[in-house]
Amino acid sequence: MSSLLSKLGGLLAHEYALIRRVRGDIQYINDEMASMQAFLGDLSSAAAPQGHDRRLKDWMKQIRDVTYDIEDCVDDFAHRLSHDPGGDVCCAFVVSNVYELWTWRPRHNIASNIAELKVRAQQIGERRIRYGVENPKNGGGHPRGPATGFQAAENQQTSLELVGTKNPVGVEDDMKELGVWVSLQQQQQPVTAISPHSSSSSSSPAEAKMPGQGVLSIVGFGGVGKTTIANALYQKFGDQFDCRAMVTVSQSSDNEAILRSILSQVMPQYKDGNDQQRSSSGITLEKNRLVAAIGSLWPMGHPGDEQSGGSTLEITQNLKKHLEEHSYLLLVDDVWSASMWEKIKKSLPKSKRGSRVIVTTRFQAVASACIRDKRDRVHKVVVLSGDKPRELFKDESEISEENFKNNIPPRLWEICGGLPLAIVIMAGHAACNPDRQLKEWEKVCTSLLPDSAKGLSQEGVTKILNHCYNDMPGEIKTCSLYLCIFPKGCKISKKRLTRRWMAEGFIGEKDGLSVEDVAETYFNHLIRRKIIRAVEHSGNGKVKSYQVHDMVLEYIVSKASEENFVTVVGGPWIMAPPSNKVRRLSVQGGDSKHQKIMESMNFSHVRSLTLFGSLTQLPSNSLKFGIVQVLDLEGCKDLKNQHAKEICKMLLLKYLSLRRTEIEKIPKEIGKLQYLETIDIRETNVTELPNNICQLDRMVNLLGGNKKTRKALKLPQDMKKETMKLLRILSGIEIIEGPSTVVADLHHFTDLRKLAIYKLNIINGGKLFRELSSSIEYLGGYSLHTLIIDDESSEFLKSLSALSSPPKFLNALELSGKLVELPEWITELDALTKLTLSVTALTTDALHRLSKLPKLFSLTFSLTLANQDPEIATTIWVNTAHSDGEIVISTGGFEELKLLRFSAPCVPILSFLHNAMPKLKRLELRFSKLEGVYGIENLEDLDEVHLRVHDEAGDFTKFMVDDMAITAREVDKGPRITVDQYHE
Length: 984
Known about the structure:
By secondary structure, this protein is of the alpha/beta class. Helices cover 34% and strands 15% of the residues. It has 29 helices and 33 strands. It is globular and about 90 Å long. 43% of the residues are buried.
């Protein structure tokens, strides 16, 4: 409703467009909506342990419906009367009269609609009194309701962390036993204990550890920890297998899509960014040196990428061809039917080198269907008992020892009945209410479970979720409902979500923070509440992507459906079609049944459209939606250039994502989208923008190019004019000397926070050179936080040292190309947390200088595929020779560094001295040849070592890495080792 009040205020300001009698109606609606918003806020704050009664729910639904309809009317007004008559003062009278005649009919229609909406608003208010919907009361004896507002400034994330893999709590013995079954390696000790919750048709434990085929089905009800155990096994023992893959299955999953996902993971493809991962834990690398690998420094000749497309038969044949000669580990998560498992099983070949398949399911029938061989087994997961619930609660809540001891009653986790998901959700609830006292928490427990003798049943998880949802501030509730836009099991980009929040109007500037910073705090609050789970980190120490537990998502879907907030078509849950207008549509499947459902829907009021899969899922294969403001077609198939012209008729569009589609050209009609704030055309074939895009004065995020291949976007000539002054992100562009006019003057983008130049090749001392250098120096004094430059000639990078006023406020800096000397001012970047440099700049002296950066969180030395040539190999050799044949990381410095990465065909010898990088958590090396590593035992805080080896690396290199992985399994202490295979 906040976004509606803002729009109504703006509408009242446009006196030129209003019919005189309408102004009073709009003012009345504005006042009525403001009062209703305050009333709903009081309802949220009032205690309601059992939820609202049916009368109140129905009244709230009526408010939502009329709010949506008023907003539609206001947007229709903006759509049809978007032009201010303006004009010179002298002729303002004439212009105004002509304008009134020209727009009489649409203004008359809008006036009629507003009058009807005013009557509806009056009737809703009268109906509340007539049917006895009472004012909210803060009842005694009930737990405190949510805060009336979310204090964004007080909830900012201050620490930077890496996302790590946690070991399951309370199943240590089961993990040990199941590990013996999963392992392909011969074990030295016989297994003497069998879990009382496990069953197997094998005659002896020894047979389970022999190479061969085997299926492990992990069964238990929702939220008991099946996927957590399966993931832990997958991560711990994946290194023993040549190939591995994991997929999530749901009720409506397509078998062909599942098999295609498996194929894309077991056959590494650079274009899809899929790596084969193998991991183990526990290795102490005392004075270990990885000896130089045998093989060519520059792998010659790359065979064409294997295609993972095609029919089910073709995919099955490709799987058979690839996996028959390789051992493989497969994790199939959340299988709902025995028939679906049988389809998957029939497509999996028998491996001559052994295979293991881990299946998780809620149903015993599916688990029983998995038993077909003497090595197959079933493991039943049960709830936690003893001290394990307390241990899990304390670990997840991260509450201080004193607060935990004085204010957290044991009953808070006891009522969860030992169910891990319920315990985690309740821990998040406690973490977000640190000021609550013991008595208040006891009231919470009583409201959730009046009978203290019993714990919550499985259905009680929904009760806990409902309580935690009602405890959230109103704006956080709205943002959480939006999570159901994305499919179950999907790994979702944080920025994709938060940018959509902003486009929907859920978030605005608050407490002195920018809208982006407020969105960040809302996102972090959902993580803290355990509504979402971070699964991938970015190099700046912030979350990059997240997932939602399927039971949490199921609750959110039902809540969003109840409030007609989002309509999901084709998802894993059966939803009744909306009885009224569709407001936000997420299409997650497109069979004939779903097609019929959509044909019966009213799409005239759709404000947000998200499509997963193919455009053919839409009725009439059309994108004709009038008032859509958010259009997300990321990864959508069958999107052609003619569809782009249809999109340009959505005049109210604010967010447009065509990422990873087949689109090749943006039409000039894009200039009509005057409200557009974000356009995402990354990883498409679009290489140039039309001049008309410069007419979009509200543009904030312009995202193009391809970061991996460095394909870049050419800016239009009109960008030279002082347009798009609100631009904050300009990413994926190219600036190259040529016959056509090239834009390098960016001085007028004073709000720019991120500038990413993926392709730069300009003449030293030329006009473009001077303009770009001056722009970077100028913008560095304003809001520029992230600067990325990939200089093909490296002439521009060399000139950066000459900047008289360097960009001292940078948080992230990436300089790629043939960079040899670091800019002199780089040590002055006190706010820098993320730094990426070309591996050509890797020297002992350079590392010594960088060690003085006080806030540096991640440091990467890399070489992109586009920049690989023999000259660079020579530079690396010379740098190493100047450092006596090795790169030394000395004692002291790098006080905050937690992530160190090296990525190049050849990584030189690295030597870590005592007390070097004291807080380093993760070391990543990507190579086809590694000269050697010394002193990893000196990195006392190191948790993980990632080795990514080229699939065409020499046999000795692969043998050496495999030997490291085997050694890792034999030692219990030390960092966890992960081995990946990549393809370019």
